[in-house]
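Minutes, project check-in
Item: structure for the 165-residue chain
Input as provided by the requester:
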Amino acid sequence: MSKELQIEIKELKIADNYDLIAGFMQQLHKHEHMLFDKTAQWDDIEAKYMRHIIEMQAEFDGLCLVAYSGVTPAGFIFGYTVDQDDSRIEVYEGKELYVSDGFVAENFRRQGIYHRLNQRLEQYYIDKGILRITRYTHIQNTRMRQLLEEEGYFVTRLLYEKWVE
């Protein structure tokens, strides 16, 4: 019988932990680029994207959680609230949680870390009254799609793209 990996999940302020979160983001973008070659290179977008998520954390009740195995950061997840306006077509009119980013380092995968991060993030916002949670993932990311479906998510729309060159 294998021993469960001991993980501690901590809330972090992105601005105060820039290098750690930017490092995770770099790995995430590298993985996303493997799935879809139109994904921007991290070096080209780092400053703007990091500024964006720092702003979302500060202004839109953002929460960044990092999972640690001992002192080693194993993965992270980040989400923030989105206000709906009256142009939406759904019946839900409250704030929603948008799960923006998440990643688990390769040597920590398949140990339930992302599942635990996701549950903790969701519960934080459910306790605040959030009833709708949205997120995106690449169609080729079959492992993430399976995890999301196991967590009770379902596909409501498909994004079609056409790149004209």
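Outcome recorded: The chain is about 35% helix and 20% strand.
No further action items on this chain.
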